[in-house]
Amino acid sequence: MNALYSLLPSRWTSSAYTRVPQASGSRSNGARFSRSRGASPWARTVILAALFGAFTFLVVLVGRGWSSDAEEPLPPPPLEPWIAPVNRTGPRTAVDDLFDRQSTTFERAVARYTLKNGRRPPQGYGAWYVLARTRRCLIDDYDQIHHDFEPFHQLAQKDKKYFRKMVERVKKLAGPTAPGIQVLTVEKGVPSGTEERSSLYNDNDAWMAMLKNLGVSLPDLNLNAIINHREEPRVSFDVRLVARDTSASASAQKAMKANDPTPFLTAPRPTSEYFTDAGHCLVPNDPNGFVRYANNASSFLLSSASVGFTTDLYPVLSGSKIYPCFADILVPSKSDYASTVPSDVAWEDKKPVLYWRGDSPGGWISGDNYHGFPRFRLLDLARNISQTHADPIMDVGITNLDESFCHSTECYSDGIKTEYNIPAKEQREDAYKYLLDLDGNTSSGRFLKLLKSGSLVFKSTLFTEYFTPWLRPFEHYIPVLPDLSDLVERIEWARANDDEARRIQAAGKEFAERVITAEQDDCYWAAVLVEWAGLQRT
């Protein structure tokens, strides 16, 4: 305070003496001095307080680099009034209500974002809002994005550079030392990749064209994003450890330090030794009632065919993950964009039978462990049911046995083909009332396609995808436990309640066709990149 006081002009802090001529007739012949005082003590206190506040503001501003705050999005230009996407006739539906409740102004969108997340949107949110409005995307319903980034925001409270440092570490690893990991660089909205490879985004030209198209709408976007090009999730870190506590606890310290000596190369075989035996990922088969784990019903958790993860909390963009064991940040994959299917058979003309076809990927086959893989488990179930049901309720089969996943000394491929009648002949999916979406090594990538078929979709999965919070069980599809123990019961319910089954089918089809569009996938990607850039900039 004394230092600030010394900076005040002397006329505010001391008395000033002025020599004035003496008026005629004065009793004294000498000069008369008049003392004019500066500001009063009260005024000086007010001035000092104001200076102290200004000084504090400057210190904070300098600390932020004299740049615009990453949490203060610039308002977008004026837009035309919001018009919800409409491509149907008839009574109002839940999709109409979903669009109607979206924010119709930028100010409202910022307010809702702030309410949900406890912080203001990142820089670039204004440009994203214009993109979302222009493409008629959802504005407010991105809970999965906020959920995926929240651990990094919590750690930023301890170390603002944590996110950036972890990105820089992965940049040094990308390539041969971290197979399946690519660095996506965006400078002023223009994307470029470090490699071109056959992968989850194997149509590299189309994928980069999509990103370049987004860059036109986000011209100020600058970042280095880490892309996982494999189907399997790559960040084996239980985010609940961070969510519970950001103090100097063992869990927080584990997140803050990079302890994995070989990031993205951890590949236990079989994976059950790590996930199940060592307890690193125990997933309930049913979230209700007594806990019974689904690990023995997942080929990924039993014996993954292509595994290579890290145990550090790196930011990585992936197509799916098992929550809470994995902390990948979810984005739409190529299969989510290419989700079309014939839908030419009327509901009443469809067979009341559950149909599934697919190949065998799902893990390394060693001995008889394949009996635990979901797709072989399904065929075993169908074979047993056919012996007790005179009226067939399933038409399921494996179309191809990938022998590259079959160990020559521990896997008898010809015997497996004979046992399961491989290859099975494929039929038109939309000719059946009930279609099953079933995990392979990870999620199938076919869920959205099946929803658009006009058939009722049954879904059995351990994996979370970017659209998971939007599509609700029993409203848009029929959920099935990972071990398939309730599948027959679900099919019998649908056959006995045809009207209700058709209602669920119609709701799922409408949601997939009207909401989860290619434009919405673009908006989702853009929202993720804006969030990423905000954390990397911090």
Plain-language structure description:
GO terms for molecular function: transferase activity. The chain crosses the membrane at residues 42-66. Residues 292-537 form the Glycosyl transferase CAP10 domain. It holds the Pfam family Glyco_transf_90. By secondary structure, this protein is of the alpha/beta class. It has 3 domains: 1-12 and 37-66; 150-336 and 519-537, no CATH class; 340-518, Rossmann fold (3-Layer(aba) Sandwich), CATH 3.40.50.2000. It is 37% helix and 11% strand. The chain is built from 20 helices and 12 strands. The strands form 4 sheets. A 5-stranded parallel β-sheet has the order 9-8-10-11-12. The protein has a 3-stranded antiparallel β-sheet with strand order 4-3-5, with helices on both faces. The chain has a two-stranded antiparallel ribbon with strand order 1-2. The longest helix is centred in the N-terminal third of the chain and has 23 residues, at 41-63. The protein is globular and about 65 Å long. The protein starts with a helix and ends with a helix.
- This entry's quaternary arrangement is single chain
Number of helices: 20
Strand order of the largest sheet: 9-8-10-11-12
User: Terminal Cα separation, in Å?
Assistant: 32 Å
Beta content: 5-15%
Number of strands: 12
* Number of separate domains: 3
Specify the helix fraction band. Answer: 25-40%
Indicate the radius of gyration in whole angstroms.
31 Å
Query: Mean of residue pLDDT?
Result: 83
Low-confidence stretches: 1-39, 54-71
Pfam families: Glyco_transf_90 (PF05686)
InterPro entries: CAP10, O-Glucosyltr/Glycosyltrsf_90
Family: Belongs to the glycosyltransferase 90 family.
GO molecular function: transferase activity
